[in-house]
Design goal:
The chain has 131 residues and is mainly alpha-helical. The protein has helices at 2-21, 24-33, 40-44, 51-63, 82-120, 123-130, and strands spanning 67-69, 78-80. The protein has a two-stranded antiparallel sheet with strand order 1-2. The chain is elongated, with a radius of gyration of 26 Å.
């Protein structure tokens, strides 16, 4: 039962993260935060939206576990949680590796069949058949 709860928690975490990243404004904020911490005002600069809307986007990213906020005197910088992005990357990578393995198997299968077909279609081979 404990394993099922962990799988469910992981699925919920992934769902929240991918839903948060589905929005282009939030993806742009994550991209900006990848270069360093930023305040709400700094995150709001490139967008024609209110600071209240920016704060709501940050809350979605926080709820997804992708960013955190801290207090630095009067500032409340937003920090990207690199470990959270690493977990998303690891999840994607496991399926990428499976797909790559299947493509390699297909390449090997096709590679074994194509040389024989190419021999049969060469002009020298056709001449021998007509004799």
């Amino acid at each position: 039962m404990e394993h099922d709860a962990q799988v469910s928690d992981t699925a919920d975490t992934l769902d929240r993260a991918f839903m948060a990243l589905a929005d282009p404004v939030r993806r742009a904020m994550v991209a900006r935060l990848s270069r360093g911490d930023a305040t709400v005002n700094e995150l709001a600069e490139p967008f024609a939206i209110t600071k209240q809307a920016v704060s709501k986007h940050i809350q979605v990213l926080e709820h997804a576990g992708l960013v955190t906020r801290s207090r630095d005197a009067q500032r409340r910088p937003v920090h990207l949680d690199a470990a959270a992005l690493e977990r998303l990357t690891a999840w994607i990578d496991q399926y990428r590796l499976i797909a790559e393995s299947r493509f390699r198997q297909l390449d090997e299968l096709l590679g074994a069949r194509i040389p024989n077909q190419q021999k049969e279609n060469t002009p020298a081979h056709k001449k021998e058949e007509s004799k």
